[in-house]
């Protein structure tokens, strides 16, 4: 199959499968844009970030926070809004605590970022009185409430905070020797600070949540003996498309049309910045063997903001159900081609963007013929 990319962005395709076993051809287009705070329309960056082929992490996979998730799910019912970055102290002056915020369209999320601190055990367990001031503090689920309580020498007494098993500060065994002096999280809710190690706190970060964490795991379906005996290698019948959503629920929005305002609070040295998403259609055309074609527009289902790099990425997605296999689709066009290309295609001829391109092609053919002779 031939994928023609006329978008100026990155494009790729894969096969996706429904629980029924029906296969789909999935096309993803990913654009990297410069963050502009001067009121200008965001422009395509000179360097385009490639599509992600495999999940990446801050450290050991499965034991650290996800960073980028693979760009090839079948579909996302909503758009994931993700941010990778750090909290910055206002005016660059060290602080013990700062509020950070992300707003995109109608979606708003804010929380506190706190300097390094430890659990302190006296008559009771409480947050340590000493907080180390900071100018910049990385934000990730590694630094949010959660983690694995594996401090006891008996592995049978270990447990994990499944809303965020890679975080810190979580304990169920509250013996002084197991808790005193252990790290607390660097992020917490605005109106519900972390005050006890066995509490049920919402882990606060802007990045993707793990595939095996709750509540995301509940959408993955049931993989029991019946599935092994009667369904494998297909997805279980109770698999839900919500499993493809990488953002926490409060960072999932309706697929945006473009033009939505983005506002960041204390996520850059400037303190406050705002800009708008570009308004850009990404048409995708599927051509079948017998000349049929299906035309659609890709929908934005993933937004990744990286303010420290002064860029953000948008990923558009489109798919088509296959009747038998991928070979029934001979060509896919992502983006817009000039009228001359469509005329040449209808006539079964090659299309050249310029006379120079035609000349180079003829020269190459002549050189190949000379080598064969």
Q: Can you describe this structure in just a few lines?
A:
The protein has 373 residues and is mainly β.
Question: How would you describe the overall organization of this protein?
Answer:
The chain has 373 residues and is mainly beta. The protein has helices at residues 176-179, 225-230, 339-347, 355-372; strands at residues 2-6, 10-17, 23-34, 79-83, 85-88, 97-104, 107-114, 119-121, 125-127, 136-139, 145-149, 159-161, 168-169, 187-188, 252-253, 261-265, 272-276, 283-288, 293-297, 299-306, 311-321, 329-335. Strands 2-3-21-20-4-15 form a six-stranded mixed β-sheet, with no helix packed on it. Strands 14-7-6-16-17 form a five-stranded antiparallel β-sheet, with no helix packed on it. A four-stranded mixed β-sheet has the order 1-22-18-19, with no helix packed on it. The two termini are 31 Å apart.
Give short descriptive properties of this protein.
4 helices; 22 strands; 373 residues; mainly beta; 6-stranded mixed β-sheet
Radius of gyration: 25 Å
Average pLDDT works out at 93
Major sheet attributes: 6 strands, mixed
Distance between the termini: 31 Å
Gross geometry: globular
Strand order of the largest sheet: 2-3-21-20-4-15
Q: Which structural class best describes the helix and strand composition?
A: mainly beta
Helix content: under 10%
**How many separate helices?**
4
Which blocks of ≥5 consecutive residues have pLDDT under 50?
none
Order of helices and strands: EEEEEEEEEEEEEHEHEEEEEEEEHH
How much of the sequence is in beta strands? Answer: 25-35%
- Count of strand segments: 22
């Amino acid at each position: 199959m031939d994928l023609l990319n006329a978008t100026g962005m990155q494009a790729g395709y894969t096969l996706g499968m429904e629980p029924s076993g029906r296969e789909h051809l999935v096309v993803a287009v990913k654009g990297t844009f410069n963050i502009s705070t001067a009121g200008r329309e965001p422009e395509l960056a000179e360097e385009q970030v490639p599509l992600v082929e495999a999940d990446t992490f801050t450290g050991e996979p499965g034991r650290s926070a996800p960073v980028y998730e693979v760009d090839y799910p079948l579909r996302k019912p909503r758009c994931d809004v993700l941010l990778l970055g750090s909290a910055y102290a206002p005016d660059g002056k060290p602080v013990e605590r700062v509020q950070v915020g992300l707003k995109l369209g109608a979606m708003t999320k804010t929380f506190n970022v706190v300097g390094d601190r430890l659990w302190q055990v006296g008559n009771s367990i409480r947050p340590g009185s000493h907080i180390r001031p900071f100018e910049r503090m990385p934000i990730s689920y590694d630094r949010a409430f959660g983690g694995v309580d594996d401090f006891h020498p008996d592995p049978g007494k270990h447990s994990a905070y499944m809303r965020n098993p890679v975080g810190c500060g979580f304990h169920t065994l509250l013996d002084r020797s197991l808790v005193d002096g252990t790290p607390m999280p660097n992020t917490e809710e605005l109106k519900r600070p972390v005050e006890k190690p066995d509490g049920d706190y919402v882990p606060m970060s802007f990045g993707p949540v793990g595939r095996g964490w709750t509540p995301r795991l509940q959408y993955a379906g049931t993989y029991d003996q019946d599935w092994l005996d009667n369904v494998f290698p297909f997805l279980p019948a109770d698999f839900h498309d919500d499993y493809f959503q990488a953002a926490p629920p409060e960072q999932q929005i309706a697929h945006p049309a473009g033009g939505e305002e983005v506002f960041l609070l204390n996520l850059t040295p400037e303190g406050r910045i705002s800009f708008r998403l570009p308004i850009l259609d990404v048409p995708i055309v599927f051509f079948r063997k017998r000349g049929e074609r299906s035309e659609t527009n890709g929908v934005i289902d993933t937004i990744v903001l990286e303010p420290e790099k002064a860029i953000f990425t948008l990923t558009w997605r489109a798919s088509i159900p296959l009747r038998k296999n991928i070979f029934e689709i001979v060509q896919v066009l992502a983006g817009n081609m000039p009228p001359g290309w469509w005329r040449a295609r209808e006539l079964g001829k090659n299309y050249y963007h310029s006379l120079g391109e035609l000349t180079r092609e003829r020269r190459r053919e002549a050189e190949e013929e000379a080598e064969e002779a």
